[in-house]
Structure formats: C-alpha cells, structure tokens
Design a protein that fits this description.
The complex is a heterodimer of chains A (711) and B (321).
Chain A lengths: L8 H24 L5 H7 L4 E3 L8 E8 L2 E10 H4 L11 E6 L5 E8 L3 H7 L2 H8 L11 E2 L14 E2 L6 H23 L8 E5 L9 H7 L2 E7 H7 L16 E9 L3 H8 L1 H11 L4 E7 L23 E5 L2 E3 L1 E3 L17 E7 L11 E11 L5 E11 L6 E5 L6 H7 L1 H19 L11 H19 L6 H14 L9 H17 L2 H7 L1 H12 L12 H23 L4 H5 L5 H6 L6 H16 L3 H6 L1 H9 L20 H5 L21 H6 L6 H8 L13
Parallel strand pairs in A: 6-7
Antiparallel strand pairs in A: 1-2, 2-3, 3-4, 4-5, 8-18, 9-10, 10-11, 11-15, 12-13, 12-16, 14-15, 16-17
Helix pairs in contact in A: 9-10, 12-13, 12-15, 13-17, 14-18, 18-23
Chain B lengths: L10 E3 L1 H5 L2 H11 L3 E9 L2 E9 L2 H22 L7 H8 L1 E3 L3 H16 L11 H10 L6 H8 L7 E3 L3 E4 L8 H18 L4 E5 L3 E4 L10 E4 L7 E5 L4 E7 L26 E8 L2 H24 L5 E6 L2
Antiparallel strand pairs in B: 1-9, 2-3, 3-7, 4-6, 5-6, 7-8, 8-11, 9-10, 11-12, 12-13
Helix pairs in contact in B: 3-5, 3-8, 5-9, 8-9
Classes of the chains: A alpha+beta (711), B alpha+beta (321).
Chain lengths: 711, 321
C-alpha cells in the first residue's frame, strides 16, 4: 500500500513497536486455542484411520475407520485447551489431545504442550506421558480421580482412579481436570450424554416400604416381564433362514424374564423376604444397585439366557442393562442361584442378581432397559451367529429415590480438604509469629532466648512451609496473575494450591501493616535456608565481603529490574518468561529439593554459598518476588521498628550490626530492605547493649526516650 | 418418506476399495497412473460421509475435496433436520421462512413437484409422524390410532406454499427433506469437484455418486446391502457411474420384523408393506433419492412405471420376505 505524505520517523518506529507487540499478543492468544490441523492430527491417527472434517460448531475432529467400504466413527478427537483451559502450576493451561470413542471411553490421551515446571525441569516429561496413558480404556461417564502413586496397585478402583505422581500433585490434578472437563463438554455436545450422570448418586429411600405381592408389583410396572413367543422370535429372525427353532405351537413361550431393581425396598424386600433383602443390601453397599433377572421360561430351551452357558460372577453375555442408549456395566453377584432366596409367589427358574456400581452412572430414577439377546446359529461347518435383541423398559417413580449430584462443587474444594493439615500448620505458625512481633518487650527483648526462637522458627519454615506444605511463595504466581489479568481472565488456578494462597493472604496483610520483611525474614523457605546455613557456617569464621556503598545501592536496584523484566515478558506473552523465572532458585531448592539437572542445582547451591560471603545476597540484590513485595510494602501503614532520637546521631550501633544494611546513617529504617530479623529491636530493648542507654546510665542522667511505638 | 435420524449404511459403498487394501494401496496405484488421489471423510446428515477423488494436481485435488465438503455442509445447514440451528428446523418451528436459502428452495420445489407427480405418495410433510412413532417404539408399542389420525390431519404437501420470497406452512405442518437431502448433496458435491476439474470421484453422502474411474483405473463398483443380512452384499452394480440411492425398511426399523420403519405412507401413517428395499440409479442424486423413497410407498408396479418414465433411471426392488 502506498502511503501519502511523509511520516515522522519517530511515529513510524512507535507504530512498528506497537505492531510487534500486538503480534506477540496474537501469537500467544493463538496458543490458547487448539494448535493441530488435519495434517497434525493425521500424525496421531495414521492410516487406516482417516481424520474427518472438523465439526463446524465444536472444535472436534471425527476420526473414522473404514469398515467394508464405508466409514464408522472410531473416535472424536479434540484439544483440551479448546474446552477446558485450566491453568497449570505457572498459570498456563496444559494442552492435551483427547480421543473419545462414541461410547464415551478414552481411546487416547496425549500431551501436546504444557508448562508444568515440575515436569519441564525436574522429573522430565516421561512421567507425565505415562500418567496420561492411564486414561486409555477408562470411561468419561465416570468420575476419575488422581490417587497416590501406585494407588491402583494398592487397591483403588482401576475404573475411577489414576496413579498420581509424587511431587506433582497440583500438576496432575490440573491435567486430570483438563481431561475430564473437556471430555464431558465433547460428550455432551457429540455423544448425547454428559455431566448429569457423572458423580451422580441415586439411592432408593430405605424407609419407604409397602408390602406388595408379585401381581401388584407387575401391575405397577415395578417388576417387568419380558416374554418372547415362538411367533415373535420367528418374526424377528425373518429373512435369516432361522425363523423356525424346534417344534411347537406359535404362541409357545421361548423366553420369559422377570426384571426388577432390588435395592428399592418395596421391590427387593417383597421379592426376597426381609432377611435375604438385608443381607443383599449389606453386600451391595450404599449407592450401588442390584437388578434381578429371573428366567421363568423353559430352562432347557436355548432361549434361556441364564441356562447352561451362564457364567457365575461374570458380566452376562445374553442379558444386559442399558440406559440412554449406552450399556451399563452389570455383573452377576454370584449369590447362590438355587435353593433359598426368592420369596413365595415367584415362578421357579434360573436367576441372577446383577450388581451395578455407583460409579457406572446408572440412574434408576429414569427409564432403563433390560435387553435379552437371542442367538441362533446358521450353517453346519462355518456356523454364523445371528442375534436378535428383545428389550423391556422399566420406569420407576422418581419419588422412590434420593438423588444427589456428588460433584456439585468444583474440584478445588477437594484440594482444600486434602491440604487441611498443611493449612492448620501454616495458620499455627502465623498465630505464633504475630504475637512475638507485636509484643516486642517480651520474647524479642530477651537477648538470650530470642535468637533460639528465631532459628527454630526458620528451621520449621524450611522443613514445614517449604518441603512439607510445598508453600514456597514464588514470582511464578505473580506472573500467573499477570497472565490471568491480561488474557485468560481466569484466576481459579490460585484455588488449587491452598497453602500458598493462605500464606499469600497473610503476606499481603503483613505487607500493608509491617512491610515485606515479615515474609522475607520469617516465612520464605529459601530465605530461611540461607540464614540457617550462615548460622551453621559461623565456625568457619568467614569474613563477609564489604560491598562498597555505591555498588550496594546499585545492586539493590537490580532486583527491581529483574522484576520489571519478568513481568513485561509475561505481559507480552513471551515464551522466554518461564525460562527467565529460573532466576528464582526456589523451584530447584524447595519444590524439587535439588533433584534437578546440574546447572540449576549449581545455581541454587552457588547462591547459598554466596550467602556466606554476601549475607542473603540473592534476597537483597536479585529476588524478583522480594522486589515486588518491597514495592507493595511502600503502602505500609506502621513505622513499627522502635527508634530513639539518638539513633543515627550519634549512635551507629544498630546500623553497623544490621546484616542487611537496612538502617540508614541517620538512623531511619529502610523498610523495603528490612527483613525484620529484630536484631535492632533486641538491642534497643537491652539496657546493656543500647548505647544511648548505657551512656545515660554511666552519666547517671535519666534520658527520656522518644516515644517508642512498640509495646 | 423419511424422518430418519441415523442413516445406517444403505449401500456398502466403493467396496472395491476395501478389497484392494485401503487408501494407501490405491494411492500408490493412482500415482502409477500419474494421478494424485485422496480420501476425505467426515460426519454429516447424522452419518459418516466420504469423498474419494483423483486428479493430476495434488494442490488442486485437495482444494476440490475441501470445496466438496464445504458444499455438503452448506446443504446440511440449509436443508437437514440434524442441525437444530439450520434453516429447515427454523421453518418448522416458526411456520414461515422469508428469503429461503437456495438449496432449501431447490429441494422443496423438487419435493412438491414429485408429490404432485406421485399423487402424494411422496410427501415432504410426513415429519410429524416421526416423533409419534419413535416415542411409541421406545416402549415397544405402536402409536395410538387416535393420535395417528390426528397427526394425519397435519400432513399434506398442499399445506406448503413455496414462492421465491418465502416458504409458508399451514398450522401444524412440518417439513422433512431427509428423503432427498443426501442424494441432492451428492449432486452438489459432484458439481463442486467438477468445477475444480476433477474427473474421477466417488461420493458417499449416505447416497452415492461416482464419476470416471477408480484412481487405479478400474471402474467403480457399488455393492448393494442385503436388507436382511447385515453387512452382506446382495448385488453389485459395476461399472457404476452417475448416482444411486437406496431406501429400505431396515435402517430405522421400529419393529423387529421390519414392518414398521422410518418410511411412511402419507395416506395411512403406517409404513408401506410391499417391498423391503429399493435402489434407484439416475443421472442425478436428487432424482435417485426421491424416486427410491416414492417407490417404497408406490410398490413394484406403480413405482416401476414412475422410474421407467425417466430417462437414464433404473430401479431394483427387493420384496419383503
């Protein structure tokens, strides 16, 4: 395009910059949507599978399989990020390729992209790939939870549990949520079923009982009868050459099934009698269902589905329970099939009680079908089986049941329940720390016991806050907030890490009252680790390096530069942001407990060694989180570290003793640099150390201290 | 007449292709003839659809296949009942559609002409019968005769007025074009492929169209399913070019003996009892599809006469057993 007129070069440069920036945004927002095209999908579903045309409403690709010249649907493939962009540990949602079979089972789950730090830099991606493999064969109809590592081997239901990964609880939970939520969205849109039955608990009301005979139950439709006469069978098999089977009258009954849902007391108790009913309910357990099928037809007829071929304890081949067009998993309970059992009035015959697990998503309060397959064989040598289905529907009144959608609350509530001990521990630490800092004349003033308390507290910070509760606050959270604010508008990721969130809440409160030091000096595990190492290193008598004041001032500013760089990269959507966040050694030292590739370990250990020469050098000069907190700490309301008029002029004791250089020459506290170690407070309350007080006593002259805000 | 929801395979398609060992194999054979070939498959009209074509230029071939599929989806959006957001469901909901889209108008015009020609044996207004029958079939019953009579009062092709400006339905009337739309889609797809210079193609929209030859140079073959033995082929049409449509009682049967199914006699509200399936070949998919449905209702004699009057058309009947 030809531009008329002359543009000023400055404007042109600015426009180029804006264009470049918006390109960055566009590039990033593109990664928020699915990334695969036909060719990309074809790599995952190679021939003989054919990748169909993308649905024009939902971003779903049918994957088809050729069957005798025409095609049938093998799976629906989609990217989880299109349906459930659930932010991961660092705020970026993982993207999974999910293939869902038409019956709702997972055909395949693959990781397309993720930024989960624990896998990228710690464990490697293989455990994650193995993790998602576990979904293959599971059904999206059931709620699936992440168990402990080896949960399946140690008895958790393999239909509803996937093994978790140690140290990656938050990430695996995000992956699980992404898989399930996106699969449900697609199942609802393409397969005609959905969230309604997942985690649904429908239980028969136990106290609702009325004595009813078999005839009354049949009349109400609570027990259903399925009969197939010779004539009906012949009609169904018409055209197959198998119309006739055996000799007999047209209206002879070939199959005669009684079907009943036993866990409804008015049905089960009347059919089984009280004692058998109670025993069955105990065996069944709450939330599960039992369907009785009694075959009253001629027991030696090939049409008897519970005859010779029936295998005790199996999923029967010839009878099945279905609902909403899908077969429900129902297995014979292997209760003794003969003799005592079914009450008076029931016809004699073979019977089975089928168990339907609560997790199967079966809802007895809406219509369901029992289907009987009649199988006939054609041909003598290469015989061919021809099957015809006969079904009977049962519709029970809804008021016989309690319905409860178990997972009404989103999954994060579970995270909170599971982390309750950690939350209690963190609350306890805060409850201990606050009074100590508030009533400074008590413990803080005790020059002998206070350092012991402080070291013990820091040890707990490292062991419990850091390694135990995994609540090392991190710049990654701030970056996640920036991403959420600018692009995803979804802050839910915060809810998946309760201990950190609780700690953040306290830190924000303490920032406003006291400044950054409450966190940096007491609750940051890496900070505490440095202080403990410095204390342990005391016997080495290492001489701290004296940083020249001009250099010190410049280095202090460096951490703000790091912060701005990180947040700007994040805001611009630069993929480099995550790599830049590695300036923070927390992940290496705390989250992954140094189990990481050597450059990262060398960096973290290097910073700990540096700490022996330049005390807490990382915290003071580099830490972007500390910088962020220091900036926010400028909102601080209280000047709460006590000072005297003599502080600074003439006394320089505290300034010299401050290991952080956070006391100015004039005696003022530089709060953005103060780590609240309380050394100067201990001094000021110690008449033997605080120089003005010593001098005053020596001169036998009472000095009137300036009012000290601390109590 | 049909209100089918899931169209199972009426005809087994280009089964020669399966015999040859799938797409990869015939791609190689096409390449030997200096042609690029490809197959695309997808979902439309509640079933799976596929296009196979060959052409001298790979890029042009892919563009042609994409055009073909988007043409098919355009037809689906306008004239299918499977898309609740489509023009036809809207017409049925509101009883009136101003500025009818071209595919819908063309299909409806053909449907009304065929209805006039067959004395109402073909009728696009049988849609209200569908929910009545499918509800009854779910509980293993037939519809209540009273309800059926009430339903018949809402049926009749003269209750539809089509002008270039609008389609207007009498109260209670609902239109289905499911009996025509797949055959018509085959026409539209074939036209889209031809416009890109494709001479060899096989189209499966649920009904079938073929042009030229198989990419390996052999003629197209079309297998016709056995209406009673699922998955078996009763007859093979070879060579096959042009279009073919099959109507049968077995696709969406309401009763195990196939006496009640998704094709209705508009006069009685019950399914016609004469034949179990009809296959019509014709120079147009629309004509093939319309005639096959009409023949189900008319039976062998009158249906045969109807087809005989059309140039280039042939019909095969399978009697009920």
């Amino acid at each position: 395009m030809r531009m008329s007129g002359v543009q000023r070069p400055g404007l042109a440069a600015l426009r180029r910059l804006v264009l470049a920036l918006s390109c960055l945004f566009l590039a990033d927002s593109a990664t928020q949507a699915g990334e695969l095209d036909r060719a990309g999908l074809a790599r995952y579903f190679p021939p003989p599978l054919v990748v169909g045309e993308k649905d024009d409403i939902l971003p779903v690709w049918p994957i088809l399989k050729q069957q005798a010249g025409s095609y049938e649907v093998f799976a629906y493939a989609f990217e989880s990020i299109d349906f459930a962009p659930i932010p991961g540990f660092g705020g970026t949602p993982p993207d999974l390729l999910v293939a869902l079979a038409p019956d709702g089972t997972f055909r395949d789950v693959k990781v397309l992209s993720h930024r989960e730090p624990v896998f990228l830099e710690g464990l490697g991606s293989e455990p994650l790939f193995a993790f998602v493999e576990q979904y293959v064969g599971l059904s999206a109809r059931q709620p699936i939870r992440v168990g402990r590592p080896n949960a399946r081997a140690s008895g958790a239901s393999p239909q509803t549990t996937v093994d978790g990964i140690a140290m990656a609880t938050a990430s695996t939970r995000t992956i699980n949520q992404s898989v399930l939520a996106s699969a449900l969205a697609v199942a609802r849109g393409k397969l005609g079923f959905g969230a309604a039955n997942v985690g649904l608990r429908v239980e028969a009301k136990a106290d609702l009982y009325e004595p009813l005979g078999l005839d009354a139950l049949l009349a109400r439709g609570w027990v259903r009868r399925l009969t197939v006469t010779r004539q009906e069978a012949a009609r169904a098999f018409r055209g197959t050459g198998l119309e006739e089977a055996g000799e007999g009258a047209q209206d002879d009954i070939l199959a005669d099934l009684y079907v009943a849902l036993l866990d409804v007391p008015s049905i089960g108790r009347n059919l089984l009698g009280p004692a058998r009913f109670e025993a069955l309910m105990r065996e069944l357990g709450p939330g599960n269902h039992a369907v009785m099928v009694l075959s009253a037809g001629p027991s030696d007829a090939p049409e008897n589905p519970l005859g010779e071929s029936f295998v005790l304890g199996s999923v029967p081949e010839r009878v099945s329970v279905g609902q909403g067009g899908l077969v429900v998993n129902a297995r014979d309970m292997a209760v003794e099939r003969r003799g005592a059992g079914l009450a008076e009035g029931l016809p004699a015959g073979d019977w089975t009680i089928l168990r339907i697990d609560a997790a199967a998503g079966f809802d007895p309060s809406v219509p369901w079908m029992l289907t009987d397959k009649i199988v006939r064989e054609r041909g003598q040598i290469l015989s061919e089986k021809i099957t015809r289905d006969f079904s009977v529907e049962t519709t029970l009144p809804g008021n016989l049941f309690h319905r409860e959608s178990a997972q009404d609350g989103p999954d994060w509530t579970e995270a909170w329940r599971a982390r309750l001990p950690a939350l209690v521990g963190i609350a306890g630490m805060v409850a201990l720390l606050v009074p100590v800092l508030v009533w400074q004349r008590r413990l803080v003033a005790d020059a002998r016991r206070f350092p012991v308390f402080r070291l013990a507290f820091l040890a707990v910070t490292v062991a419990f806050v850091g390694y135990g509760a995994q609540a090392q606050l991190s710049i990654v959270t701030l970056m996640g907030l920036v991403r959420a604010a600018l692009r995803t508008h979804d802050f839910a990721f915060l809810l998946y890490d309760p201990p950190s969130l609780v700690l953040w809440a306290f830190v924000l409160g303490s920032l406003v009252l006291w400044g950054r030091g409450t966190f940096c000096g007491w609750l940051c595990p890496f900070g505490a680790m440095q202080e403990l190492i410095a204390w342990l290193g005391c016997p080495l008598r290492i001489q701290l390096v004296v940083v020249p004041p001009a250099l010190d001032q410049a280095l202090r500013k460096a951490k703000y530069v790091v912060l701005v760089g990180l947040l700007a990269a994040t805001a611009a959507g630069s993929p480099a942001a995550d790599a830049m966040a590695e300036v923070e050694p927390f992940k290496t030292a705390i989250t992954l407990s140094f189990l990481r590739s050597w450059p990262f370990v060398a960096y973290a250990v290097g910073l700990l060694v540096l700490n022996l020469f330049v005390y807490k050098g990382f915290c003071r000069y580099l830490c972007p989180l500390g910088a962020g907190l220091a900036l926010a700490g400028r909102l601080r309301i209280l000047d709460w570290i006590p000072r005297r008029s003599e502080c600074g002029t003439p006394c320089q004791l505290c300034k010299v003793r401050c290991r952080y250089g956070a006391i100015a020459a004039d005696g003022r506290i530089d709060y953005p640099e103060c780590f609240q170690c309380m050394d100067c407070v201990t001094i000021i309350h110690d008449p033997g150390q605080c120089v003005p007080q010593v001098v005053a006593r020596r001169h036998a002259k009472r000095i009137v201290p300036r009012p000290v805000p601390a109590r | 007449m049909s209100g089918r929801v899931t169209r199972r395979r009426a005809v087994l398609g280009a089964f020669g292709l399966a015999v040859l060992g799938g797409a990869t194999r015939f791609r190689t054979m096409a390449a030997a003839r200096g042609l690029a070939s490809d197959t695309r498959a997808g979902l439309a009209f509640g079933t799976t659809v596929s296009l196979t074509a060959a052409g001298p230029d790979r890029g042009e071939l892919e563009a042609a296949l994409s055009d073909g599929l988007s043409a098919m989806h355009a037809v689906e959006r306008e004239a299918s009942l499977f898309r609740s957001d489509g023009a036809l469901p809207r017409l049925n909901r509101e009883g009136r559609l101003d500025g009818p889209p071209p595919h819908l108008a063309a299909l409806l015009a053909f449907a009304l002409d065929l209805a006039a020609e067959t004395g109402g044996a073909f009728d696009p207004t049988v849609q209200p019968l569908w929910p009545l029958w499918s509800r009854a079939a779910k509980v293993g019953e037939r519809p209540d005769p009273g309800a059926l009579t009430a339903c018949l009062a809402r049926i009749g092709w003269r209750r539809v007025r089509l002008t270039p400006e609008a389609i207007i339905l009498d109260k209670g009337t609902e239109v289905t074009l499911n009996a025509l739309v797949q055959g018509y889609a085959a026409d539209v797809v074939m036209a889209a492929l031809r416009a890109r210079g494709i001479a060899d193609a096989f189209i499966d929209t649920g009904e079938f169209g073929a042009a030229g030859t198989h990419p390996d140079g052999s003629p197209w073959r079309l297998g016709i399913a056995d209406p009673r033995r699922k998955g078996e082929i009763a007859e093979v049409i070879a060579p096959f070019t042009g279009f073919a449509a099959t109507s049968g009682d077995y696709n969406m049967a309401f009763s195990p003996d196939f006496s009640d199914h998704h094709i209705y006699n508009p006069a009685t509200g019950y399914s016609p009892t004469g034949v179990s399936s009809v296959t019509v070949t014709a120079p147009s998919g629309l004509v093939a599809d319309g005639l096959s449905t009409a023949c189900m209702v008319l039976g062998r004699e009158r249906g045969g006469a109807l087809v005989a009057g059309r140039q280039g058309c042939a019909v095969r009947f399978t009697e009920k057993a």
